[in-house]
Please model this.
Amino acid sequence: MPMTEAPVDEVFAALEDRYGEPRTGSEDPFRVLVATVLSHRTDDDVTFPAADRLFDAYGDVQALAEADPEDVAELIEPVGFYNRKGEAVVRVANRLIEEHDGEVPAEREALLELPWVGPKTANCVLVYAFGEPMVAVDTHVHRIANLLGWVDTDEPEATEPALEALLDEAQRLAVNEYLVRFGREICRPRGPLCGDCPIEAMCPASEDKEPEGVGEVEGRTMLGRIADGR
Model:
């Protein structure tokens, strides 16, 4: 764990310069909900095509509620736990019709009562569909928040309240999109691209970096070794 913290405002400014304004409050609630359920334990390059196939076949809540879970499972394979998720998203659609007039609720407590919906999924729906300033913590957000010294937590469940206490509303809205993209594209768990990092100068993990050619492992910087868990 770094001993100092990266400056929060400056980091968010640099990531906004890199990625633009976050796309919060602009997404279809049902698509965000279902796609986030599919994303559990599944890489994005598998989740997104699976979600596209699913929505091409079942374009709204009613259509998915009437679907055969086995047909849904075939469409979303190879997402992780595709058989269970096929059943889950059909159940979600039916619960929305039975309890919410076919609409995705905009209240966290109601979202958490839906099948396969935990804190991350509920917060993703609130952020991306409804523009609510919630902190949606996945593995990227958890890992990078610790790397930057913003939190000192062992589990994502502890990272969420710690970041809520640290960030202002605008930063809560942006933190998931920015750190997920940053974690996928640059600060990767394996082979991070530190030379292309827009916040390297602010990162506590790079403060003790030794002169060029010293302390490097296979071309990776100190930040890269920490991100790799080495």
About this structure: The two ends are 12 Å apart (CA to CA). The first helix runs from residue 8 to 19. The chain has two domains: 1-21+137-230, 29-128. The domain at 29-128 is CATH 1.10.340.30 (Endonuclease III; domain 1).
